[in-house]
Amino acid sequence: MNPASNLILVGPMGAGKTCIGRRLAERFGLRLVDADREIELRAGTSVATLFELEGEAGFRARESAVLAELLRDDGLLLATGGGAVLAEDNRRLLRERGFVVQLLVTVEQQLERLAQDRSRPLLARGDREQVLRELAQRRAPLYAEVADLRYDTGSLGSAEAAAGLAAALDRHWRRPAGAPSSSPVSGADA
Ligand SMILES: Nc1ncnc2c1ncn2[C@@H]1O[C@H](COP(=O)(O)OP(=O)(O)O)[C@@H](O)[C@H]1O
Ligand SMILES: O=C(O)C1=C[C@@H](OP(=O)(O)O)[C@@H](O)[C@H](O)C1
Ligand SMILES: [Mg+2]
């Protein structure tokens, strides 16, 4: 098991990386960083606009650079974007620099959670269900390759899921000596 001080969330769009990350950061005394948000801050524009202006390849180059920059630090809760595992160098970096949690979600749950979402360019055209199924098929082995722990949010709401994941991390994540101690998940209803 990986005794890293960073906690890294990977998984598909709508798995809850960003929102569960927010709750867990507080619980484990980690600094929350969301890779997409950091890319947007550096570029001064949105992920959707970057896809439009630079294509997916341009966005992926920015994503790799941001992951490398952020993961020089310790004590982070890093919420990645769903495609962060595509590049082999990213996968190596994630494995080396953190305890990686793969959040599991079904395509049906993704469709429900992202029904109103207009910010994810990969879902902007075509048949959403088909796109999500193709992405899941291609990426599932890549998430599995980097994961130290897999966690299924199933039918849980995000507060319950965060509380359940925190309990699983208490059992499975060996943190380095001197890491801040954990406190209850705020707003958890489980
Ligand atoms: N466990 C959950 N149960 C219900 N809704 C959720 C859950 N996790 C996330 N959501 C909702 O799904 C949407 C996407 O969540 P988000 O955290 O942005 O996912 P990701 O960063 O993995 O793409 C948000 O509207 C969020 O409130
Ligand atoms: O799956 C993907 O390739 C993407 C997922 C998004 O992040 P979330 O997984 O946080 O939605 C964002 O990085 C971008 O729209 C591309
Ligand atoms: Mg996100």
What's the short story on this structure?
By secondary structure, this protein is an alpha/beta fold. It has helices spanning 17-28, 35-43, 47-70, 88-97, 107-113, 128-146, 158-172, and strands at residues 7-10, 31-34, 76-79, 99-104, 149-152.
Percentage of residues assigned to helices: 40-55%
How many helices? The count is 7
* Uncertain residue ranges: none
Specify the structural class.
alpha/beta
- Name every ligand kind in the structure: adenosine-5'-diphosphate, shikimate-3-phosphate, magnesium ion
Order of helices and strands: EHEHHEHEHHEH
Radius of gyration: 16 Å
Number of strands: 5
Mean pLDDT, rounded to whole units?
93
Protein described:
Keywords: Amino-acid biosynthesis, Aromatic amino acid biosynthesis, ATP-binding, Cytoplasm, Kinase, Magnesium, Metal-binding, Nucleotide-binding, Transferase. Monomer. Catalyzes the specific phosphorylation of the 3-hydroxyl group of shikimic acid using ATP as a cosubstrate. The protein has seven helices and five strands; from the N terminus they run βαβααβαβααβα. It is α/β, with parallel strands linked by helices and 190 residues long. It has one domain: P-loop containing nucleotide triphosphate hydrolases (Rossmann fold, 3-Layer(aba) Sandwich). The longest helix is centred in the first third of the chain and has 24 residues, at 47-70. The structure holds adenosine-5'-diphosphate, shikimate-3-phosphate (S3P) and magnesium ion (MG). Magnesium ion binds at residues 17-18, 36, 79.
